[in-house]
Amino acid sequence: MPSLKGAMPIFVREMQLFRNKLKRPTYVVSALVTPLMYMLVFGLGLGRQVHIADGSYLAFLIPGLMGMTAMNNAFNWVASAINFSRFYYRTWPLVILAPVTPLAIAAGNVAAGMARGIIATLLVGLAGLAVGWRPQPTLVLPLTLLIETACFSALGVLVGVKTRCSEEHMTYANFLITPMGFFCGTFFPLDNLPHWLACPMYLLPLTQANIALRQHGFSVETVVALSSLAALALVLLALAVRAVASYTE
Predict the structure, then answer these.
(1) Residue 91: phi, psi to the nearest 5?
(2) Is the whole model's pTM more than 0.85, yes or no?
(3) Which of these, 4, 117, 126, 219, could form a disulfide with 73 (CB 3.0-4.6 Å)?
(4) Radius of gyration of the chain from its Cα atoms, rounded to whole angstroms
């Protein structure tokens, strides 16, 4: 597609930067510290007090940690990369002036965020397998991760372009991304929350991702969750493309 011409070089550039980080063992270890901490604290400690009706708490927790990891890495990688390009390296204006469409710019950054989020999530999944998590083989999990990382990467592009200073994107992380990690069914079922608080949580993308990640096949609940997540991803991508197209310093 002509409108996507130029997306691949942007993707390759971001992945080369990510590859350089992956060469450092300390980076891989640091990416696993937070999920492993949650796995130990909630899985071995507080998890014994959480009642799961249809399975073990470990089988409930690991997919939630994978969903949270995918969200955090996809959003933060894209938002912070654009943030640094705009305010520190001053390379973002060069990308805007390049003969590529706003769709290609957004798509390249979204694809890089998806790859980064999925790689980090696979590390969490491997850690889960090491402690006894045994998921059923299904296409639901990889499909959900693809749609979820696309959704939060598109949000990262939107936030990265719209922020007015280098610290502002952390405000979105603190008031949107972090609360979703704790209140969207990552560590405990939403049924444990009061009804007035649980209902709005179902409107958030991480909740729908967590619902789909815990399904064993393409049930009605899975299709509804994935459809909602995909629709939101398309809306956020459209907003991100519009933000790139209207970008001015």
Answers:
(1) -100, -15
(2) yes
(3) 117
(4) 18
Look-up of token digits 């973002």: 92
pLDDT tens, position by position, 30-41: 777 777 787 777
Buried b (16+ CB within 10 A) or exposed e, 69-81: bbbbbbbbbbbbb
- Is residue 86 over pLDDT 80? yes
Q: Which two tokens stand for residue 48?
A: 């014994």
Asked if pLDDT for residue 226 goes beyond 90, the answer is yes
Domain count, the chain: 1
- Residue identified by tokens 């991803």 is 233
Give the pair of three-digit tokens for residue 144. 């959900």
Domain that holds residue 148: 2-245
What the block records as the tokens of 12 is 């390759």
- Residue 27 token pair: 């980076």
Q: Cβ distance 221 to 211 under 8 Å?
A: yes
